[in-house]
């Protein structure tokens, strides 16, 4: 599973670079601003970094098919939650005419990317497992039919 974890790490670094760049340069570069940079860092942290590591933590504590379900659901829910927190803290106080449902679709891109990255090692563990659907490659010694 080391290859799947490396693929996940490389994909994570590429995604994070792309996502940060896309958020920072969305309006065109008009000069450096510390406040804007901090705003983008907070946005990326809430909608990408925290959801990635929290999803990873949840998935690593799951077994079997729950691991696959968690890989599919947790990243999208957590990016939506992160964007909601960013909305409440930064967008709503400054722009009263923007509503949360009108921007929530923006959490789908990072959520789907993180979902794909979470699925790489999970699917690999099931493909290369010992057949008992718990995601490992070792036979269970507690089962009498284990070889």
Describe this entry's structure for a reader:
It contains five helices and no strands. Helices cover 69% and strands 0% of the residues. Helix 1 runs antiparallel to helix 2, helix 1 packs antiparallel against helix 5 (108-127) and helix 3 (65-91) packs antiparallel against helix 5 (108-127). The two termini are 21 Å apart. It has helices spanning 2-24, 34-60, 65-91, 100-103, 108-127. The protein has one domain (2-23, 35-127). The protein has 147 residues and is an all-alpha fold. The radius of gyration is 19 Å and the shape is globular.
| Quaternary structure type | single chain
Biggest β-sheet description: none
Series of secondary-structure elements, N-terminal to C-terminal: HHHHH
Structural class: mainly alpha
Beta-strand percentage range: under 5%
Helix content: 55-70%
Label the overall shape: globular
Task: Kindly report how far apart the N and C termini lie.
Answer: 21 Å
Give a short summary of the structure:
The protein has 147 residues and is mainly alpha-helical. Helix content is 69%, strand content 0%. The protein has helices at residues 2-24, 34-60, 65-91, 100-103, 108-127.
Layout of helices and strands, plus pairs?
Blueprint: H1 2-24, H2 34-60, H3 65-91, H4 100-103, H5 108-127
Please supply descriptive tags for the structure shown above.
147 residues; 5 helices; 69% helix; mainly alpha; globular
